[in-house]
Amino acid sequence: MLELARGDWQAQLLPEQGAAVAQLAWQGRDVLVPLPLGADPTASFAGAFVMLPWTNRLDGGRLPVAGMVYHLPVNRPEDGTAIHGLSRDRVWAIESQAGDRCMLTQALDGTAEGLPYSYRAQLSLALGDDGAHLSIAVTNTADQPFPFGLGWHPFFLRPAGTGLRFRASALFARDARTLPVAVQVSDGLVGDEAAYEGLDTHFAGWDGAAEILRPDLRLHLAVSGAWSRNLHVFAPAGSGIICLEPVSHVPDAPNRPDFAGYGPLTMLAPDESLTASLLLRAEF
């Protein structure tokens, strides 16, 4: 476990468990739901994890590229989808670390595992006086262009009375498997639990900013790069969590060309990278 601290902020990361953030706290108050010691980050509604080289769900694990259809492992058999990418199930190496920051890397040679992706990824987390800075990059290390996406899946703690506020221009109606089926005009979301509880919904045309208004503090999220247009909101009823997931593309985007204009996967040439970053601030 990596432990970071600076000023009001503390964090714990698990490089050998997908670079999951096990804890993030401000002034002793948990920002994320803490991951219990020894728990599996991929099976717990706690902490936060990285999503790449795609985010959310691919129907049947299908990935059509330039007239060919590749198949990714279906790791959510109950709805027949490949969910949340490949990186969260794999070890990340510690490239550098200090008391308030770290850089982790992960490399995948897909040809050795029968997977269509080959990539090199980098994650950095730095705690500063102004907040927690997270940045993620993924580079295509294959010898041909290939489509990529990336995201971050935080489980924010949601005490009773928590409000949410962000702006977006579109939201996606979904089917029973949480796959997008239609686009609706949206202003985003402003309200308390009644406005968002039960959502597992994708928003596009996001302006890259969001606020979580807890009774004990306010969290401000600001993103840039590949995350500046798309936000997925997951708030299971009665769970005490809310996930504001900055992502680079619409769920199942490669299989739903009608939605391509709202956020496709990004075609990367060999050695080309997709990057995104965020700043999380807190105040009373």
What does this structure look like?
Helix content is 1%, strand content 51%. By secondary structure, the chain is mainly β. A 9-stranded antiparallel sheet has the order 10-11-12-13-27-23-22-17-20. Strands 16-25-24-21-18-19 form a 6-stranded antiparallel sheet, with no helix packed on it. The longest helix is centred in the last third of the chain and has 4 residues, at 193-196.
* Residues in helices, as a percent range: under 10%
Strand order of the largest sheet: 10-11-12-13-27-23-22-17-20
Gyration radius from CA atoms, angstroms: 18 Å
Q: Taking all residues together, what is the mean pLDDT? A: 97
Query: Which percent range describes the beta-strand content?
Result: over 45%
Largest sheet descriptor = 9 strands, antiparallel
User: Got a strand count?
Assistant: 27
CATH topology: Beta-galactosidase, Chain A, domain 5
CATH architecture: Distorted Sandwich
Q: What's the domain count?
A: 1
Low-pLDDT ranges: none
Strand pairing plus helix content: what structural class?
mainly beta
**Elements, N to C (H/E):** EEEEEEEEEEEEEEEEEEEEHEEEEEEE
Shape assignment: globular
CATH class: Mainly Beta
Q: What's the tally of helices?
A: 1
Oligomeric state of the chains in view: single chain
Summary, kept brief:
The chain has 284 residues and is mainly β.
SSE layout and pairing:
Elements: E1 2-6, E2 9-14, E3 20-26, E4 29-30, E5 48-51, E6 57-59, E7 62-65, E8 68-71, E9 81-83, E10 93-97, E11 101-109, E12 118-128, E13 131-140, E14 146-148, E15 151-154, E16 156-157, E17 163-166, E18 170-174, E19 180-185, E20 189-191, H1 193-196, E21 200-204, E22 209-213, E23 218-225, E24 230-234, E25 241-247, E26 266-268, E27 273-283
Antiparallel strand pairs: 1-2, 2-3, 3-4, 5-15, 6-9, 7-8, 10-11, 11-12, 12-13, 13-27, 14-26, 16-25, 17-20, 17-22, 18-19, 18-21, 21-24, 22-23, 23-27, 24-25
